[in-house]
Design a protein that fits this description.
single chain, mainly beta, nine-stranded antiparallel sheet, six-stranded antiparallel sheet, 3 helices, 108 strands, flat
Length: 1449
């Protein structure tokens, strides 16, 4: 890495004195530099010293540095430097001192000794003794050569002593290259966080240092001069490295900073140019941009051209000092000015709500501002971070004065823009809260009185509330606006926090912020004075400070706080209004008395907040400081409502409102109190029933008053309870009344009325559960679920029974009669039908004898009533349970709960899911079934009920409604409950049809309604009832037939089914019908409505169809797991394969239509739900393929249901209209909310809400007195008045035809007075300070009217020699006026020979001070209150006007 030095170096002084005898007569043994000669150089490596002579020596090479005349006799030495020696001191001392000695030292290889040397390391040309220090910068095969020479004449030959010794630097370890610095700890300067410079200094020297073979892109002196290296390691806060070098000798240092590693060094550049100290703009100071936690190397050398001519460094010691800093700049503000401001900052009010006649800066926007006033504010500034590397603007934190009302301030919509980009509001304490990312002692935070975090800048504010330490990385910042972009640094987490991202990555940012703020309202002037500060200030932040940007040059630590003008609230004259809240039950007439709190006769405005659910509220204006709100209010809902009146004092001239008081009128609904009643004891046939009544108010306390009346509505008062407990027992006389009215009420609140109908009971209804369909000679079981209500249960003889359970083994379908006697003594009889299916029929066979695939699994799904995990006689089979196999095939259990699932051979898992009922688990699985034979049976799956009842459903299916035919109709009632039910079905047919062949037991017909009892329907079961309707004859226009069915359970509607169907005479009998059929062409269907489909088919061939299969490819928006088979004309096997729903009718043996028209028909009805999360306006299509034996499929019509959230559109129209006083709209002329109802398409209600607001105007009367030509100001408008009289002024809101103010003014116009004076005075006197002849005009204000009196003065000045000027008194126009004393201290006297009408005093600039009247010929006036100075006195007599000067002291 080192090369031979080319500059001569002498470091230190070493003296050695010795003597030796002169050697003459032989050639020296070291006469030649060539090792192959007879007299080669003497090796000093081991002996270090030698006595030598040049006598008899010969010439070899020319000297390099010294003259050739002394180069005739030369002797040579050499030595091999040790690797661990840094340098040597070489001494050549003359033994005799008569002649000078010449010494040159070279470096080179042994071969060069024979060839010659081109340059020296050191030399001495004229000294008697030679001493020098040389540095060990040699390569491995190089040696030092010493040449001693003189002239050849004997008198010039020289005896000498030569010696060399190794030595070390006495100051510090010298690192001769970069790698050597790694052997010791690096220099680690500590960055001062307060932006101070803390240097770390070290002494060193250039002794024994060698030049470099490369300048590494830095200072060229590194390859010429000795260079010393230092290793510096920065800490986590460093962004700049400062270095300085101070020498103790006559040389100038040069140094540079490198980065990288020792085997790959790169000089730290600035602007792309090498940063060498020789080029630094600051003398003896080098500033480099560095990274935190990084390694750097500093190389120090000597500036070659700074040395004296001899090139010798007299003292190579020096001190190097290094320091690291965080570079801080101010990107907003002028730190050097000492003021926290920026030339680019604009903070101004651009508009305000109240325009006042006088404003402090004459532009209407400077304030002060009034409580409740809305103010528009604009803030803009220019953020300049161009002095950094690329630190950039990221955000600002605003601080609003406590006079601003921020309760409704929308930080999101009021955001500022930076370079056109909107900022986002980040909330303190939230997941994405802003944080500080650099330690700073300038910024600090504290929690203010409102519990919010607030920031303070120590450069601009007194931050006593803050900790002195400032802020540390990770400390939370207050809420503020931030512009956050993706951070590209390695440690940027880029989460939602500004602290983990970058900002607006521009060197400069223009920020504009426009927003509106409202001034707080106060109830007292004192409260206003405490919070009148409307100032705004903000602190800006850069991405280097509050983001994850790391700037290599400088970061914006010194941003200053920006301040608005000192805006304040005007607190003088705050007037409030007194008034009380009121409360009514549902409706009432208000009587709210209003009056100004201070009794002043100011205008009171009442604005009402619209409540669309209350009618009768109005706005008011009261002009005399008092008034009464009288409104008839009505609550149109069953919920509590409020009407809020905003009441405030308003000045119609300045347009400034006072503080707002909200007066609330509460309107309680009738249901404000709560009352409940129920029968807790009643005997069968008894005429009394014990009723429990629970009555509470809104806070769950007992009602104060309770009345019980007979009949509904109330007729006879039976009993009154006052301040009773919340639970009351009442023995109701149900023999006298069938209904009772209970009224609970409290004073000042609404009453609650409850009507309770109580009938004389006939007893309890048995709840029968059990099997209603069994195979031949199978066991069925019936259970009475509510047996505790019965004293006796008598079962039929066919059964084997205990009290509440009976077993039956039947060989034919049987209707069982069961007799009951309940605990009330009532008797009843219930019929229960058990259908017995023949063996070998569609459901009564051994499933393993019905092999539908090579391998299959069979079993039952059931409700495990006794929860024993075994399918036994107490359990209920479950139809429509879906069984899913591993091959993706899903089969459904049949009405007996049985399933047959095709599978593959091997270990199989099956999953059962039930789409109805309420279960502890809706999905059950059987795993690891070993299918090792054709049929694996008894894989039963039980579900345990939660006993939650889910209601009842009803469905209707029918054959094709063909002209003059009698199709079958099927009504299916589904019991989704976990207990038995019984109810009543009402089927309402179309009037064009007629009932035929009604075989339902007990059914009755009432006009178009078929009525029948359902009988007992067991839990989770269904029953289907069949009857026939005769269709009408065909006509030219075929009608649409309408049908509806209702099922009633316990007297309440359990479910309804309504649909329409076209009467057909020629038709395709294979079709598909959806329910509901939807509205309009798009078949609009409400969201979350269950979809039912009926697929009808008919064999129109010429022979029997033995196998029918229906394949229905399901729409992707149908939920597969919700599918249930509701009814089928023939036994059916249901499966799902992929998206295809398959209904298989094997062995159906469906005859052709010509053989038996009705018998040739069949159908299947199923229900399903749409998928969750379906989007509105999503269409659901459905279509089926019907296969008869091996024929091509018959494709049905395609059904459509479009899912919507509402069937009614444009159901509500709102009309707002504003009427001027005296106008009307649609016949209405009073303010309020009016509801107009219409019937729209599809029977939807269309409602028009008509909201009428009236604008009344305020009428005021006032008086004005003005001078001729002057104008008056009314409501900020200026008018010129020509003459006295009564004037009317109307004022209108902008954009409105309604006036809001009418002012009637009596105006008196005074004429301006003009006075002409012809005055003569003597020389040396003056009138109004005029002392020369001329015509002058003087204006003054009349004392009474304030109007201008114009005096025209025609002045004549007489010379002093004039006869009239010979007296000492002023005698003009035959008047004599005396004024004394003059000058005056307090009282002045004025006398005249004429009657004095008035005396006026004017200042020296002609302003009227005072005017006095009604004197005789003498007057005395007290001037003690006058200011000292000159006054003009105007004295008006009955003869004219005289002026005189008076001095007041």
């Amino acid at each position: 890495m080192k090369s031979h030095p080319v500059t001569k170096i002498v470091i230190g002084i070493m003296l050695m004195l010795s003597t030796h005898a002169q050697l003459i007569g032989q050639i020296p043994t070291n006469d030649s530099p060539c090792f192959s000669d007879a007299n080669p150089p003497i090796d000093l490596t081991e002996i270090h010293a030698h006595y030598g002579t040049t006598c008899e020596a010969t010439y070899d090479y020319d000297n390099v540095d010294c003259s050739q005349e002394n180069n005739e006799s030369s002797v040579w030495y050499y030595f091999d430097p040790a690797d661990d020696q840094m340098g040597y001191t070489v001494i050549v001392e003359s033994i005799d001192s008569e002649t000078p000695i010449i010494v040159e030292i070279y470096s080179g290889t042994i071969e060069q000794g024979c060839e010659g040397f081109g340059q020296t390391i050191a030399s001495s040309c004229d000294s008697e003794n030679f001493y020098t220090s040389i540095t060990n910068c040699l390569t491995e095969d190089e040696q030092f050569f010493i040449k001693v020479t003189t002239k050849s004449s004997p008198e010039f030959c020289k005896s000498f002593f030569v010696n060399y010794v190794a030595y070390e630097c006495s100051i510090n370890t010298v690192f001769d290259d970069c790698i050597e610095t790694l052997t010791e700890d690096p220099i680690q300067p500590v960055t001062n966080l307060d932006f101070q410079i803390d240097y770390s200094c070290f002494s060193n020297c250039l002794q024994f240092a060698c030049p470099e073979v490369d300048d590494f892109g830095g200072c060229f002196d590194f390859v010429n001069m000795p260079t010393v290296w230092f290793h510096v390691q920065t800490d986590e806060f460093a962004s700049q490295l400062l270095s300085t070098v101070t020498t103790n000798g006559n040389w100038e240092p040069i140094w540079a900073v490198f980065e990288g590693s020792c085997d790959s060094l790169n000089i730290v550049t600035y602007g792309g140019s090498p940063m060498c100290s020789a080029y630094s703009s600051t003398p003896n100071l080098l500033i480099n941009a560095v990274h935190e936690n990084s390694d750097y190397w500093v190389a120090v050398t000597c500036h070659e051209y700074s040395l004296p001519p001899n090139g010798i460094i007299d003292d190579g010691s020096f001190e190097i000092c290094v320091a690291t800093m965080r570079t801080a700049i101010d990107c907003l503000g002028e730190l050097e000015s000492g003021e926290c401001n920026d030339p680019s900052l604009i903070m101004e009010v651009t508009d305000r709500e109240f325009e006042l006649p006088i404003d402090t800066d004459n532009d209407g926007i400077a304030g002060p501002f009034y409580p409740g006033e809305e103010v528009d504010i604009k803030i803009s500034f220019f953020y300049d971070s161009s002095q950094s590397g690329l630190d950039h603007f990221i955000g600002l934190i605003p601080i609003f004065g406590d006079g601003w009302d921020l309760s409704n301030f929308d930080y999101t919509t009021s955001a500022p823009k930076g370079n056109g980009a909107w900022a986002q509001w980040y909330q303190e304490g939230a997941d994405c809260a802003p944080i500080i990312q650099e330690p700073t002692s300038i910024l600090c935070t504290y929690t203010n009185e409102e519990g919010k975090l607030e920031i303070c800048n120590k450069l601009c504010e007194d931050c006593d509330q803050c900790p002195d330490s400032g802020m540390e990385p990770g400390d939370q910042l207050p809420s503020g606006y931030f512009w956050v972009s993706q951070g590209q640094n390695l440690h940027c987490a880029n989460d939602c926090s500004p602290g983990q991202g970058w900002g607006l990555a521009y060197p400069t940012t223009t920020v504009t912020w426009k927003f509106s703020l409202k001034v707080k309202e106060f109830t007292t002037e004192e409260e206003c004075d405490q919070k009148r500060d409307l100032s705004i200030r903000f602190q800006t932040l850069s991405a280097g400070i509050a983001g994850c940007w790391e700037d290599p040059v400088a970061e914006c630590f010194l941003d200053q706080m920006m301040f608005s003008p000192e805006w304040e609230t005007e607190c003088i004259g705050i007037a409030t209004v007194n008034g009380d809240n009121q409360s009514f039950c549902e409706s009432g007439i208000t009587n709210i008395n209003l009056q100004t709190a201070d009794g002043s006769a100011q205008l009171i405005k009442v604005d009402v907040e619209d409540n669309p659910f209350v009618t009768g509220e109005n706005s008011y204006n009261f002009i005399a400081g008092e008034g009464t709100i009288v409104d008839t209010l009505h609550n149109t809902t069953n919920e509590y409502q409020e009407v809020i009146y905003s009441v405030y004092v308003f000045d119609p001239v300045t347009m400034v409102p006072g503080p707002t008081k909200n007066i609330t009128v509460g309107l309680h609904p009738q249901q404000y109190n709560s009352i409940q009643a129920k029968v807790i004891d009643q005997s069968c046939g008894g005429e009394e029933a014990l009723v429990q009544i629970i009555a509470k108010n809104s806070i769950e306390e007992p009602i104060q008053n309770l009345q019980i009346w007979g009949e509904c509505p109330r007729a006879d008062l039976l009993e009154t309870f006052i301040e009773s407990n919340d639970t009351i027992l009442f023995l109701a006389p149900i023999g006298d009344y069938s209904c009772f009215t209970f009224i609970a009420y409290e004073e000042g609140q609404c009453s609650d009325t409850l009507e309770l109908a109580i009938e004389i009971i006939d007893g309890y209804t048995p709840e029968i559960t059990g099997t209603n369909q069994v195979c031949y000679l199978d066991t069925s079981i019936l259970i009475i679920e509510n047996s505790e209500f019965f004293d006796s249960i008598i079962w039929p003889e066919e059964g084997i029974s205990n009290f509440d359970t009976c077993l039956f083994v039947l060989d034919t379908t049987t209707t069982l009669e069961i007799k009951f006697v309940d605990t009330l003594g009532c008797t009843s009889i219930e019929n229960y039908t058990i259908e017995v299916l023949e063996l070998g029929s569609d459901y009564c066979y051994d499933p393993c004898d019905n092999q539908i695939s090579t391998y299959q699994i069979t079993g039952y799904a059931y409700s495990d009533v006794n929860q024993n995990g075994i399918f036994d006689s107490l359990d209920i089979p479950l139809a429509n349970v879906q069984i899913l196999g591993e091959n993706g095939t899903t089969v459904f259990t049949n009405p007996l709960g049985e399933y047959i699932l095709p599978v593959e051979m091997g270990i199989q898992d099956i999953v059962a899911s039930i789409p109805f009922g309420s279960w502890q688990a809706n999905t059950k699985a059987i795993n690891d079934i070993n299918v090792n034979e054709a049929c694996i049976s008894n894989q039963n799956i039980g579900f345990i009920s939660t006993l939650e009842n889910l209601g009842t459903e009803i469905f209707v299916s029918n054959s094709q409604t063909r002209c003059n035919f009698t199709p079958n109709f099927y009504v299916t009632v589904v019991n989704n409950n976990h207990n038995s039910i019984s109810g009543v079905v009402e089927f309402n047919k179309d009037p064009l049809t007629s009932f035929e062949a009604i075989t339902i037991p007990g059914a009755t017909i009432n006009n178009d309604i078929l009525i029948f009892d359902t009988g007992v329907i067991p839990p989770l079961s269904q029953k289907t009832y069949k009857f026939n309707l005769k269709m009408p004859l065909g006509s030219s226009s075929l009608p649409t037939l309408h049908f509806k069915a209702n099922v009633y359970v316990s007297g309440n509607v359990g479910d309804s089914y309504e649909y329409s169907e076209q009467l057909l005479c020629s038709y395709d009998p294979n079709d598909k019908r959806e329910h509901p059929q939807g509205v309009g062409n798009e078949r609009w269907t409400l969201l979350n409505t269950k979809l039912d489909y009926t697929i009808r088919f008919q064999n129109n061939g010429n022979d029997t169809a033995y196998h029918v299969q229906i394949r229905d490819v399901l729409d992707s928006n149908i939920d597969h797991q919700s599918i249930r088979v509701i009814n089928a004309s023939h036994p059916v096997r249901t499966t799902i394969s992929g998206d295809t729903l398959i209904f298989d009718f094997p062995n159906i043996n469906l005859v052709d239509s010509t053989t038996n028209y009705i018998g040739s028909q069949g159908f299947i009805t199923f229900s399903c739900d749409h998928v969750n999360g379906i989007a509105e306006f999503t269409p659901i299509f459905n279509q089926a393929n019907i296969y008869f034996d091996e024929n091509e499929p018959i494709i049905t019509n395609q059904t459509l249901n479009t899912i919507v959230g509402s069937l009614c559109q444009d159901v509500l129209t709102t009309i707002d209209t504003v009427l001027c006083q005296g106008e009307s709209y649609l016949g209405y002329n009073t303010p309020g909310l009016y509801t107009l109802n219409y019937e729209a398409q599809y029977g939807c209600d269309s409602t028009i809400l008509l909201f009428i607001e009236t604008i009344d105007y305020v009428s005021q009367h006032t008086n004005f007195e003005v001078c001729e030509g002057d104008s008056i100001s009314i409501n900020s408008m200026t008018y010129s008045i020509p003459q006295s009289g009564e004037y009317t002024f109307d004022f209108y809101n902008e954009g409105s035809e309604c006036k809001y103010l009418q002012v009637v003014a009596d105006i008196t116009v005074y004429e301006n007075e003009a006075i002409e004076i012809d005055s003569t005075i003597c020389e040396g006197m003056s009138v109004f300070d005029f002392d020369e002849t001329g015509i002058y005009t003087i204006e003054e204000a009349d004392e009474e009217t304030g109007c201008i009196i114009t005096t025209y003065l025609d002045l004549t000045v007489l010379p002093a020699s004039h006869p009239d000027c010979s007296t000492s008194s002023l005698d003009l126009q035959h008047q004599t006026i005396y004024i004394y004393p003059n000058p005056v201290t307090d009282r002045i006297y004025i006398e005249s020979n004429k009657s004095i009408e008035s005396i006026s005093f004017f200042t020296s600039d002609y302003r009227l001070v005072d005017k006095y009247k009604n004197f005789d010929k003498k007057a005395q006036i007290d001037m003690s209150s006058f200011q000292d100075g000159l006054y003009f006195v105007r004295i008006e007599t009955n003869k004219g006007i005289v002026f005189q000067k008076v001095y007041k002291y």
